[in-house]
Amino acid sequence: MGYQQWRHLTFLHWRVPPEQVRSKLPRGMELDTFDGSAWIGLVPFLMDGVRPRWAPAVPGVSRFPETNVRTYVTRVNGEGEWEPGVYFFSLDAAKWPAVLIARTVWSLPYFRATMSVDRDGDRALYRSRRLWPGPRGAGGRIEVTAAGPPAPALPGTLDHFLAERYLLFTSARGAILRGQVHHTPYPLRSAQADQLDDSLVAAAGFAGLSGSEETTGRPPDHVCFSEGVDVEIFQLRRG
Q: Residue 95: its pLDDT value, please?
């Protein structure tokens, strides 16, 4: 359906009890766990080169920051096989067209926000503030430092469980929709969160994890960084 480039990604994750997440999933989705825990992710990054397959990228439209709050699920496909994927609780983006198309056409929970992504060597700084729809003002400031050489995650590791997901699931009018992406494995680096002032995770229904100006959270249980990948996007389908 189209092409995108995902750049300067930070993956911040918290370990949470499965029952805290399972009740928030639509009927028909199964929670995917690692070491007996569910995982809530906060992933800020830069979208670039966003375009349909039949048209070039448009300057000023095809490049914008995005941040998603997510967890990990599985679902049985038509052949009876379990497919691991991502379920998004929210996706904030800095372009109105992207938000409106995603909400109306793909039934994805996108929100319009003012956002920025800045790089300085191994350091990355993300800022965001939600505008529409509410809760207005959710967002914050995240600063991380990456370390070590990039490398793909090994199957069976937590890095692989959290990063290497090629399906997304969403629900619309009682039906489960399935979307596929394709890209090479992420080149991942270890990272640490130097500053984490965030309220997007709490706005998604998970208070007490990431911190904000109003609440005190706890440090993430896992942080990693990637320079990014080039992505092929496929149409959402029932299933």
A: 92
Residue numbers of the chain with a pLDDT score lower than 50: none
| Chain centroid, CA 128 distance in Å | 14
pTM attached to this predicted model: 0.94
CB 35 within 8 A of CB 56: no
CATH number for the region 2-238 comes to: 2.40.400.10
Residue matched to tokens 């938000």: 99
DSSP 154: P
In 3D, which of 234, 230, 235 has the Cα closest to residue 4?
Answer: 230
Cβ neighbors of 138 (< 8 A, separation 6 or more) are: 92, 111, 129, 130, 199, 200, 202, 203
| Alpha carbon distance, N-terminus to C-terminus of the chain | 18
- 3-state SS assignment for residue 184: coil
Cα dist from 148 to 53, 73, 145, whole Å? 35, 30, 10
Between strands 188-198 and 167-172, the pairing is unpaired
